[in-house]
Each structure stands twice: as structure tokens, then as C-alpha cells.
Design a protein that fits this description.
The chain is globular. About 30% of the residues are buried. The strands form 2 sheets. Strands 1-2-3-4 form a 4-stranded antiparallel beta sheet, covered by helices on one side. By secondary structure, it is of the alpha+beta class. The chain has 16 helices and 7 strands. The protein folds into 3 domains: about 1-85, Integrase, DNA-binding domain (Double Stranded RNA Binding Domain); about 110-195, DNA polymerase, domain 1; about 205-385, hpI Integrase, Chain A (Orthogonal Bundle). The protein has helices spanning about 5-10, 60-75, 80-85, 90-100, 110-120, 135-145, 150-170, 210-215, 220-235, 235-240, 275-285, 305-315, 325-335, 340-345, 355-360, 365-380; strands at about 15-20, 25, 35-40, 45-55, 250, 255, 270.
């Protein structure tokens, strides 16, 4: 017997609701509702979209789920079966194909997740449509609810839909013009967005960091360890989440992030403080793969949102993970005599013009080590360093 009722499907608030045997109703914060079936296929968890509510009713979703489960039990991939049947993939299938082809170019795992999550959250109504059947009216139904209230997100959603449909046309699945195109098309149908002034990432005042870390160290999880490591190294979340054992030399106390994983595309050496080394040593005792901070799925890193969730669980409001880099920079500028250039190098920022960069051969590793040790001393508070090994 299913767990959902027609009334609950209609009134459920944002979240995921199970109906049994892997069938779920996913309600986005925008109020849009879609059906998803989660199954195991070839020993991997897979999700298949069954359409959006109310276009697909509860009963229809159950019937579709039953059909797909039957295919899976016989060892057939439902997506492959759909394409073989019609020759034209639906939007959801095309999204997966596009993201898979783009993944190699994403340095930051957060970008991969954002690509999927924005489309899942705001464009789920397109999932069951064949890519050759998507028209301007469908695109407007996705964009209009968020065009003025979430302008930046809406622009990203539009651009990603456009890319997916461009890929569909390149593969011969579409012949019509791209209905998500802005110039000469949607710019005549949607109001011009106000340019947003880019602010700083919300940062914790550096004076509050020691007390926060004292509370953070009481939490025993990979995510909390990753967040502390991020704060101590002033690194970006993508660099930390993708950190591998081969990148760390504990004897030399150096973490070398390869150019392929750096925002500026340059190798970055980070001197590790005593506590940062302690975190790595402790995690090495339970090493299960090449990642220092693994997620729940074997071989996969922590989710890009895992560090933000640590803050939320600790009831830390109006602070972002990226903001800890700002806290470090403010501390270095306000409380120390270290040169500005050294703090910028610690953050892996590009310093000076091209001529200056050409003559700057050294990355000042040992001078930066002194800076990071001083930062650790601040982070641990007065007199705390002697007890943290």
C-alpha cells in the first residue's frame, strides 16, 4: 500500500516524500513537484524522473514506477530503453549526457553539483519532455517565477537550459531554434534584470574563530575535520574536498594542490601547521581510498554542501564557508606585520601584472609557513597550542 495520498501530494511542503519501493515525490522550495524513482541498477543507485505533478498524478506515477521496476529487474536500463523506443531523449536524459561530458572541465566538484541541482530545483517540469518538443512557453514557465526574485539563479538556469538544448540540436535531436536563447528571443519576452552589485562572502569576524573552532573540534565527522582543515589552510572548499593523499607530504608538512584543481590553473603549495597535520594523520588511520575527505559513497568526495551543513547544524547563521578566507585575510592585515603580498599568496591570489609575475619565481613557502603558524596560534587561542597534538 502506498504511503502517499492525493491530498498529501497536493499540499506537501518542500522536501522528499516516499511512496514505497523507491518512488518519491520531490517538492522544491518553489513549490514545483516531481516524481522520482530510485532503484539499484548494476549495483549502482540510479534515479529516474517520472514527470511533474499535476501533469502526472499519483496513480500514474505508481504505474510508471511499476513499469520501470520491471525493466530494471530484467537488467534493462530504462533510459536506454526510452531512447531506443523513440530515438529522441527527454530533457532529463540530455542533462545527464551534457553534465557527464562537461565534468572533466570542472575543477571544482561544487560546479558539477550546482549544474544538476539548479536544473533539478527549477527546471524539473522539463524533465519528461522530449528535447525536440520543448518550446518557448515551457522555458517561460520555468523562468518567470524566479526571473525578478532570484535574478542571478534565473540567469544561470536559463544559460544551462540553453546549453542542454544546443547539445540536443548538435546531436540531431532538434531542428528548431533554441527557445532558451536570450539575445533576439527571450530578451523580448522577459524584463531586463537589474545588475547585481557583488558583495563579499559573509564572513565570521576573525576574533570569533577561536571560539567557533573550540566547538567544531567536539564534532566527530569527516565534514567537521574538513572544515577545520579548510580554516587552518585558508583554502577553497573545492581544493579541500578534492584533496588526495598523494598531494600531502607530512614529513615536509606541505600540501601541494595541482594546477588542474586550482582556480587560477597554477600549482599551489600550502604549508601545513601542526594541527592541520594532526587532522590528516588521524584520518589516515581510516583511509579507504585516494581522497582525504571521502563522502559516504566509496571513491566520491564529500558533497559540496557538506561544509555549509556543518555551519547550519551548529546554528551558525549569516556565515559562509568561503568567508573564512576573508576572516584570515582581515586578521593578517589588521593583526600582523606580514606583508600584504604574503597573505595574498597564501590565498593563491594572482599578484601583480604579468611582468611582475614573470619575475616572481619563488612562492615564499617558508615565509608563508610562519604566517600559517601564526594563524593557527590565533585560531587556537592563547595558551592552547600545547595541547592540540
Amino acid at each position: 500500500m502506498g504511503k502517499l495520498t492525493a491530498q498529501k501530494v497536493k499540499t506537501a511542503k518542500a522536501g522528499k516524500y516516499g511512496d514505497g519501493d523507491g518512488l518519491q515525490l520531490v517538492v522544491a522550495s518553489t513549490g514545483s513537484r516531481k516524481w522520482v524513482l530510485r532503484v539499484m541498477l548494476n549495483r549502482r543507485a540510479r534515479e529516474f524522473g517520472l514527470g511533474s505533478y499535476p501533469m502526472v498524478s499519483l496513480q500514474e506515477a505508481r504505474e510508471k514506477a511499476a513499469e520501470l521496476r520491471k525493466l530494471v529487474r530484467s537488467g534493462v536500463d530504462p533510459r536506454a530503453a526510452r531512447m531506443k523506443e523513440t530515438g529522441v531523449p527527454n530533457f532529463e536524459t540530455m542533462v545527464e549526457e551534457v553534465v557527464s561530458s562537461l565534468e572533466a572541465g570542472f575543477r571544482n566538484p561544487k560546479h558539477r553539483a550546482q549544474w544538476r541541482s539548479t536544473l533539478e530545483t527549477y527546471a524539473s517540469s522539463l524533465n519528461s519532455l522530449k528535447v525536440d518538443a520543448i518550446e518557448t512557453s515551457h522555458i517561460l514557465s520555468v523562468l518567470k517565477p524566479i526571473w525578478t526574485t532570484k535574478a542571478e539563479t534565473a540567469s544561470r538556469v536559463r544559460g544551462r537550459i540553453e546549453k542542454v538544448l544546443d547539445a540536443a540540436r548538435a546531436k540531431g535531436f532538434r531542428t528548431a531554434e533554441n527557445p532558451a536563447r536570450w539575445r533576439g528571443h527571450l530578451d523580448h519576452l522577459l524584463p531586463k534584470q537589474q545588475k547585481l552589485a557583488r558583495g563579499h562572502h559573509a564572513a565570521m569576524p576573525y576574533a570569533d574563530v577561536p571560539k567557533f573552532l573550540e566547538a567544531l573540534r567536539k564534532r566527530d565527522s569527516v565534514a567537521s575535520s574538513a572544515l577545520e582543515f579548510l580554516i587552518l589552510t585558508a583554502a577553497r572548499s573545492g581544493e579541500v574536498l578534492g584533496a588526495r593523499w598523494v598531494e600531502v607530504d607530512l614529513e615536509a608538512r606541505v600540501w601541494t594542490v595541482p594546477a588542474s584543481r586550482m582556480k587560477a590553473g597554477r600549482e599551489h603549495r600550502i604549508p601545513l601547521s601542526r594541527r592541520a597535520c594532526t587532522i590528516v594523520k588521524r584520518l589516515s588511520q581510516a583511509k579507504t581510498g585516494e581522497l582525504i575527505f571521502p563522502g559516504q559513497m566509496r571513491g566520491k568526495p564529500l558533497s559540496p554542501t557538506a561544509l555549509e551543513m556543518v555551519l547550519r547544524r551548529m546554528k551558525i547563521e549569516k556565515v559562509t564557508v568561503h568567508g573564512f578566507r576573508s576572516a584570515f585575510r582581515d586578521w593578517a592585515g589588521n593583526e600582523t606585520q606580514f606583508p600584504r603580498e604574503l597573505a595574498e599568496q597564501a590565498l593563491a591570489h594572482v599578484i601583480g601584472d604579468k611582468a611582475e609575475q614573470a619575475y616572481r619565481r619563488s612562492d615564499a613557502l617558508e615565509r608563508r609557513r610562519a604566517l600559517m603558524v601564526a594563524w593557527e596560534t590565533h585560531c587556537w587561542g592563547k595558551g592552547a597550542l600545547g595541547v592540540h597534538e
